[in-house]
Amino acid sequence: MPSVSDESFRTLRPHHPHHFEFESVREVPDSHAWPDVHDHPSVEPSGPDSVPVVDLASPDAVLRVGRVCEEWGVFQVTGHGVSSDLLDRLESQIRRLFSLPTHQKFKAARSPGNISGYGLAPISSFFSKLMCDVIEEYKEVMKELAGRLMHLMLLSLGLTEEDISWAGPVRDTGDLSAVLQLNSYPVCPEPDRAMGLAAHTDSSLLTVLYQSSTSGLQVLRPEPARWVTVPPLPGALVVNVGDLSHILSNGQFRSVLHRAVVNRTRHRLSVAYICGPPAHVKVSPVEKLVGPSEGPAYRAVTWSEYLGLKGKLFNKALASIKLPREEWGDCPCSN
Ligand SMILES: O=C(O)CCC(=O)C(=O)O
Ligand SMILES: [Fe+2]
Questions:
Q1: Is 268 a catalytic residue?
Q2: Alpha carbons 331 and 328: distance in angstroms, whole number
Q3: Which of 33, 174, 269, 322 could form a disulfide with 168 if both were Cys (CB 3.0 to 4.6 A apart)?
Q4: Is any atom of ligand 1 closer than 6 Å to the C-beta of 272?
Q5: Among the options 10, 221, 268, 299, which is catalytic?
Q6: Which ligand is closest to the CA of 229, given by its number?
Q7: How many Cβ atoms from other residues are within 10 Å of residue 257's Cβ?
C-alpha cells in the first residue's frame, strides 16, 4: 500500500515503507497521489459526530465502554493514569528519532523475511542509544492500561475469567501480546491529494493510540458515510476496537474503519500500542455470546493467522473468515 506518511518504526514487527524524501517535494508525486481521499465527506467533530470520551475512573465505566464499543468501535479515554510527563517525553524522543538523517534511520531497517526473533537485535541497538528508556516505560504503562481496557470490554459483555481464560483474572492485566508502532506523517504540500495511512480496521483486540496534538485521525461513521475527525484532547488516549474483539464478541463490538490524513504545516506523530491475544490462542466468538439458533459468525483464528489473511486480503480479511449462515450451529471451530 503506498502512502505518503508511511515512515514508521515497529518495535516488534517489520515494516518496509516505500521510502521517500518528503522534505524536498513541492507537490505530491503521482506515485503517492491518492485517488479517493474524498470518497466520503470529512466532518468536524460536534454533537452526534463526536467520538465519545470515557473516564475510566467513573463508576459507570464498564457500561460506557460496552456501549461505545457497540456503537462506535472507538473512544477516547481519560482517567487512565498515564502521566502527561511520560507522554511528553515519549513524543520528544520520537521526534528526535524521526528527524535523524535517512541513512541513520535505515540502520534499523528490517530485511524482508526477517521475522524470527522479531527484530529485537537491529531495533534494540538502535533504540538503546536514543530512546530505550522511555519506550520501555511506555510499553509497561500501556500493557497495564490495555489489560484494564480489555477487561472492561469483557465485563461489559457479561463475561468472566472462565469464559476467556487467556485474559487472566478479570481484575488482572492478563497475558496479552503487543506491538508498538511509531508513525510519522511529514507535512504535505497538497494534503487533499495524499493519504497518511489508508483506511483500515486494526487486526488487534484493541489499539491504544497517542496522537500528539495534531489532528489527522478520522473514523468512518455510517449512514450517511462520513469521515469524523478524532480531535486530539490533551491527556486523552484513543482506543480502537480491533477485528479480533469484533470476532470474539460475535459481531457485537464494531471494529472501526479509520485512516490518517496529512496536513500542510505540521509534522504529525502517533504511537499505536497494538494489543492482541497470546500467540498460541485461537480467538473465536465466545460461546456465551452465541445465540442457540444463530451459531458463531466467524471461525477461530490466531492473531498471526489473521495478520496473514490481512496481508493477503486487506479489508476483506474479516469477511473471509465469516461462516456462511447454513454452517452456523454446526461449526467445526473451537475456543
Ligand atoms: O496515526 C493515526 O492517527 C492512526 C494510526 C493507525 O491507525 C495505526 O497505526 O494503526
Ligand atoms: Fe489503525
A1: yes
A2: 6
A3: 174
A4: yes
A5: 268
A6: 1
A7: 20
C-beta separation of 244 from 152 below 8 A: no
**Closest CA to ligand 1's atom 1:** 270
CA dihedral 150, 154, 155, 158 (to 10 degrees): 170
Q: Which residues pair with 184 in a beta bridge?
A: 7, 269
Among candidates 67, 55, 5, which has minimal Cα distance to 252?
67
Closest CA to 137 of 82, 182, 187: 82
- Where in the chain does DSSP place strands (E)? 7-10, 42-43, 53-55, 74-78, 177-185, 197-200, 206-210, 217-221, 226-229, 237-241, 258-260, 268-276, 282-283, 301-302
Answer whether 216 contacts ligand 1 (Cβ < 6 A): yes
| Per-residue model confidence (pLDDT) at position 3 | 35
Percent of the residues in the chain that have a pLDDT greater than 90, as a whole number = 52
Contacts of 320 (CB under 8 A, 6+ apart): 309, 313
Q: How far is the CA of 327 from the centre of ligand 2 (A)?
A: 31
Give the residue carrying C-alpha cell 473451537: 334
Maximum pairwise Cα distance, the chain: 60
Whether 277 is in the pocket of ligand 1, judged by its Cβ within 6 Å, is no
Count of residues in the chain: 335
For a ligand 1 pocket test, name from 4, 7, 204, 258 the mutation site with the most ligand atoms within 8 angstroms of its C-beta. Answer: 258
For residue 73, the CA-to-ligand 2 centroid distance in Å is 12
Protein residue closest via CA to atom 10 of ligand 1: 202
* Residue with the three cell numbers 516488534: 12
**How many angstroms is it from 196 CA to the middle of ligand 2?**
11
Q: Measured from the CB, is residue 217 less than 6 Å from ligand 1?
A: yes
The yes/no answer to whether this complex scores an ipTM above 0.85 is yes
Digit-coded pLDDT (tens) for 153-201: 999 999 976 787 776 655 555 678 898 888 888 898 888 888 889 999 9
Structure confidence at residue 17 (pLDDT) = 46
User: Is the full-model pTM beyond 0.90?
Assistant: no
Sheet holding 226-229, edge to edge: 42-43, 226-229, 217-221, 258-260, 197-200
